[in-house]
Amino acid sequence: MASKALFSIIPRIKRKEEKEERKRSFLKNGSMLLEDLIASCDGKSHPIRCYSAAELNRVTNNFDRSCFITDGTYFDIYRGILDDRTVIIKKHYIVDWAIRDIIISMQMSAHKNSLKLLGCCLEFDTPALVFENAGKGGLNNDGSLAVDNELLPWKTRLRIAKQLASALTYLHTAFPTPIVHRNLRPTCILLDDDYVPKLFDFSFSITIPPDQLYVQDNFAIGTSAYMDPTHRNSRRSSERTDVYIFGVLLLVFLTQRAASRRHGAEIELLIGDSKLNVPGGQIQIETIADPKILEEVVGDEQAQQQLQDFLALALLCIQDENEARPDMIDVAKELVRIDK
Fold this sequence. Notes:
Blueprint: H1 2-40, E1 49-50, H2 53-59, E2 68-71, E3 75-82, E4 85-92, H3 95-108, E5 117-121, E6 128-132, E7 137-138, H4 154-173, E8 179-180, E9 189-191, E10 197-199, E11 206-207, E12 215-216, H5 229-234, E13 236-237, H6 239-255, E14 260-263, E15 266-269, H7 285-288, H8 291-296, H9 301-317, H10 328-339
Parallel strand pairs: 1-5
Antiparallel strand pairs: 2-3, 3-4, 4-6, 5-6, 7-9, 8-11, 9-10, 12-13, 14-15
Helix pairs in contact: 1-3, 4-6, 4-10, 6-9, 9-10
């Protein structure tokens, strides 16, 4: 009789412990989030909803692999149906980066080329973020679509680059002090059903303090193949850090090659390609551009000139010295000009 009573008590104790753990996580994460929200409040952030752990567990079947989309170094991504709409759920591994992602995603939600944050859940050990869906999904490291490896046409690649430049310009200029993304790469770009890009993942982003030109870090942050050499050497982050990263991304779009690839024990960087380092700078576009887009532009002088101008802009962005690179707003203007 006593054993039956004991077995009936154990589930209740377990449920109580789980409830208390959710409460502790909510208080810990909520206090950090509230502190950052107050510090970053500027009247431009959009209100978001606070979801419960039970809601997100239900729509992902307890984060079952059947709902899993992809993973990153510091998060997993799932898809589910919530409030009669398809959503993307991002489950972080590291609290500080999750909080930063929430704050800046809120601030960026007003921009049409940033994935809109719908809400978050603070009841897990690390916060989970809930975003609007992006029908076409993400990109592979070489710029193709992740779902079916679809190669994008030249006009689509150019338009995506132009719209991403607009989003980064907004990140740098729309707030009281600039925000630097620091980790732009194909896998943090999602496309909607109309191939409109949505900037995604601000986990590494940082705000430059007032009256300062850069942020001094203790260690280099970002994806190695995209990393600004100034940041790598000095640990300083500025808007020009993003300009360099964006230049590498332009080369990925142009060449349909990942920013790095492994050959045995060697890692080959796209920016180290000898075809991009020709004496005198007379680079032959035919030697580096994706054969698919070269076929597309045959006989189209305007498109051929676009490729040349696109390459020239990418090379300007990846200058070793910060001062030699353009501002992001000028990069955005040049892409608008190229696309005309």
